[in-house]
Write a structure and sequence with these properties.
Elements lengths: L4 E10 L2 E11 L4 E5 L6 H8 L7 E6 L13 E4 L11 H12 L5 H8 L15 H13 L5 E5 L7 H16 L3 E6 L2 H7 L2 E6 L2 E7 H5 L3 E7 L1 H12 L4 E4 L2 E4 L6 H10 L3 E8 L3 H9 L8
Parallel strand pairs: 3-7, 3-8, 5-6, 6-7
Antiparallel strand pairs: 1-2, 1-4, 8-9, 10-12, 10-13, 11-12
Helix pairs in contact: 2-3, 3-4, 4-5
This protein binds adenosine-5'-triphosphate.
Amino acid sequence: MKPPVQIEGLSKRYGGLTAVQDLDLTVRAGEVYGFLGPNGAGKTTTLRMLLGLIRPTSGQVRVFGARPGEPGHLRSVGALIEGPAFYPYLSGRDNLRLLARYAGTGAHRVPVVLDLVDLTDRAGDRYAAYSLGMKQRLGVAAALLKDPRLLILDEPTNGLDPAGMADMRALIRRLGAGGCTVLLSSHLLGEVQQICDRVGVISKGRLVAESSVAELRGTAALRVVAEPVDRAASVARALFGDDRVRVVDGALELAVPPERASAVNAALVDAGVAVSELRLRERDLEDVFLELTSGGLTHVA
Ligand SMILES: Nc1ncnc2c1ncn2[C@@H]1O[C@H](COP(=O)(O)OP(=O)(O)OP(=O)(O)O)[C@@H](O)[C@H]1O
């Protein structure tokens, strides 16, 4: 089967500004994929190109093998990109019935999707009376009307309070467990960490890492306290390259797998460097994210 999402060499320029640059990314069937990056990184632009709402400057997107404009491109896709437009004085249920009629999906899905997003009890209330979290869940319900195989959500928890966020996370997990492939964007690391199988990190329009959350966290660093630190740093750079070596608080941080520790130690001692400490530095995911998105370390194998 063709992957739900395949993005190759995708770029988008707005005048002098490059919003997305040479992006490659694949979302596999059945996974919940988190597209993670700070504000302005190019997430929405990418999702809009995927849906055919804007044209790429170069590169390609395919959804289940079909490019925008080709038959069936969005047949199996539900998306919540911009806040959906609902009628404030209609109930949630009536809003969905209307959308189902426009979309030609038939009203039979309305109770199903209301149940999926846990809004059945409040379905008769006016949309205007909904909390932000309920509005957002109704948006997801609308995206689910045509029973999509791929659901695309742009910042689904944006603006929600902690309870609303938790509800939305639970909903996305349920959908993923039910076999729906989900691609969601977020600038919140904690969020993708809790619900995603894999994460692609985007910074300034470029994909800087793609892996499972566990792997991302597993990009541990070796911390080496050594004297003189300058000589230690040049030995390490000669071994691993400049981008894997940093000096932090007077100690070396090496973005290399832990099993390289003895090789590091031997090379430093050979070079006449005194090593007083060499240990694995546990890396907080927040640190990893900051390093990845601030032009520091890139992908650490
Ligand atoms: N229509 C447009 N014209 C000009 N520049 C644009 C346009 N749309 C987006 N941009 C710029 O492209 C860059 C990426 O924007 P984008 O909205 O894709 O980022 P994002 O990762 O979704 O961030 P956010 O979470 O803030 O929405 C930004 O610098 C933005 O200002």
